[in-house]
Amino acid sequence: MKSERGQSLVEFALIVPVLIFLLIGIIDFGRVLHAYLTIDHAGREAARTASIGKDEATIKSKAVSQGSSIGLTTGQVIVTTGSSGTEATITITYPITFLTPIIGSVVGPLTLTDTTVMRVE
Questions:
Q1: Would you call 82 helix, strand, or coil by DSSP?
Q2: Which residue range(s) make up the domain with 35?
Q3: How many domains does the chain have?
Q4: pTM: predicted TM-score of the whole model, two decimal places
């Protein structure tokens, strides 16, 4: 019988790229989920700040401080407030970049948007 050591090496070489692609895809999915949960939380906290009648700069700084783990900036936060009894709207837009260029070219540019509405007291 011939040795089958070369066969195992060839099979391993064929499956490794698929496993690496799968692993990086899981990591990218986790990053997107983390970013979505972060902007959702930052929007809720900013809406709570807006509901008690704070000014726009304070509301944006609250959202940015809550979204610091993803590098949220004040330019990505849009605040619409009104007088007492009306609704305050916080919209956060965050662009996602993928780790792998293959996934990025298949999915294309992805922008997460979260809108939170809360009544001003």
A1: coil
A2: 5-119
A3: 1
A4: 0.84
